[in-house]
Amino acid sequence: MSGIVNELARPLDLRSQTTVERVEPAEKGWRILTDAGQEFSAGTLLLTPPAPQSMALLAHCVDCLPADIVSSLNNIAYNPCFALLATLGGPSQVPPPGCVKLDSGPIAFIADNTQKGISFGNAALTIHAQADFTRSYFEAPQDEVAQLLLDAAKPWLGSQLLTWQLHRWRYSQPVATLAEPYLFTLDPAPLALASDAFGGPRIEGAFLSGLAVAKRIIAGR
Ligand SMILES: Cc1cc2nc3c(=O)[nH]c(=O)nc-3n(C[C@H](O)[C@H](O)[C@H](O)COP(=O)(O)OP(=O)(O)OC[C@H]3O[C@@H](n4cnc5c(N)ncnc54)[C@H](O)[C@@H]3O)c2cc1C
User: Which of 12, 121, 127, 187 measures 20 to 30 Å from 101, CA to CA?
Assistant: First the structure.
């Protein structure tokens, strides 16, 4: 999915692989400090990480933010999710059109990326764990988690397992979201917050939130 965003960002001065450590209001706008010691300045600051990560970046100036902004951010909650990518030596047993949704057990969802048309060569499955399972095993060793998910996925594997990779998403899906498409304040300096926690827990929601906040920023103060 990042291909679309990379294309949209092509004309922009974009610094990837750059971790922001903190942000603080400055005389005109904001100071942005990275973990590598770089410093940037901005008239308006737009934050789009998951709400707890935005709050951590703003930790040094929470007291000077409007109380309603702080409480809105604190009310956003997320489910965690393990995502396991498994490659197989032959076709899977996932039925057409290439997706299984489950209500109980460790697994919530299995997608066959070959049937989906985005994987070529060996069959590749994406397996998402249930939120409750992820919460219970969040700190467990990767091998243990992968084995539990692969055991539960056995009926749909259909072929020999070749490789697996496990990703652990702490803020995977916003479950308590906000009705408005973004937050914006001029106090103590122009600050906007947007993400899928405002627009709905999918790519589309994140896009619509970003579009709405961009219009607000372009409209000015
Ligand atoms: C496993 C999984 C599968 C999914 N599958 C689908 C799907 O099939 N279809 C769909 O529509 N949606 C899917 N989603 C949901 C979709 O990925 C999200 O809704 C969407 O990515 C949210 O976009 P966002 O811009 O709000 O946040 P993110 O995509 O989370 O972007 C936030 C960005 O902020 C950056 N960031 C955070 N902190 C810092 C910092 N301190 N310094 C610098 N950068 C920072 C992060 O690196 C990240 O790039 C899936 C999510 C997960 C976890």
Answer: 121
